[in-house]
Amino acid sequence: MQFNNREDIIAITPLWKGERFPDGRPKVADKYLDALYNMTLEELWKPIFVAGYEHQFIAMNPLHPEFKEDGSVNRKLVGRALTAAYVPTRPDYYEASCNIAAAQGWSGTPNQWVVDKLTDRDVLVVDMYDKIYKGTFLGGNLTTAIKTKTNTGGAVIWGGIRDVEQMKKVPDVQVYYRGIDPTPIREFAMLSMNAPVRLGTDRDTAICLPGDIVYGCSGGVLFIPPHLVADVVEGGAKTQVKDMFGFEMISQNKFTTAQIDKNTWSEEMLDLLMEYIRTEPAAEAFRDLDWSKEYDAARNGDPNDTQSAL
Which residue range forms the structural domain that includes residue 260? Predict the structure, then answer.
């Protein structure tokens, strides 16, 4: 057994064909991470859900609110996932896991091992099995370490945190968590590093793989499979400009909400959208998008179309 095994990480992310980190995690280009800051949860969620990835979002508490009191954006969390899973301790396994870590050259406690492996723009995603009392994975010191390692990253902890006043003073780090408790972390052992992790309950569950792109907003956290990120960013941009156009068409009473909300638009509507994008200054950023798939669906029908878009 080995934690953070490169061959295992590559084996569970075979659809990613691009650059990888030395540990094997997919390395999605920074330009896509940058684009996500200007998109909403619903814009990003839709193309993932349509592609069959239905368990990628989990509602959680943010350390910092997404929006300031004046309505401006405070901070979102965007970065590449480095995952870890933990279990309740038992003497034999705890000793064995520490021996495995020592053989790999790691020192400190099991929660420190994973923080030490973070790099620029990483987000630590931890399944702490919803342990809050004595499950406080992060406090002031490790949050400071996350800032030092990742610059603009953060953490998603399905468990507890402590030293919240100290954590909030660490700049440019966002953390999502399940609960707050003053107790230090105790009685836990590492199950895996950079393997799949499950966050949630039986009724509300999300899965995250190493290298997934983490998008945290006021509602919770979305995990975007790396091989879908380029399509998700393009799909999100299309949703943005369709919404801009649709709001204007509804306010001018040119189209009904039923027409605008339909998943597949008619050629007439698409033609008007293209004219809007070409002439509207606010739509300038969307002029390089390719709409050939939308035109094909309008002409030939879309078997997956529904009356109301997702």
Answer: 231-300
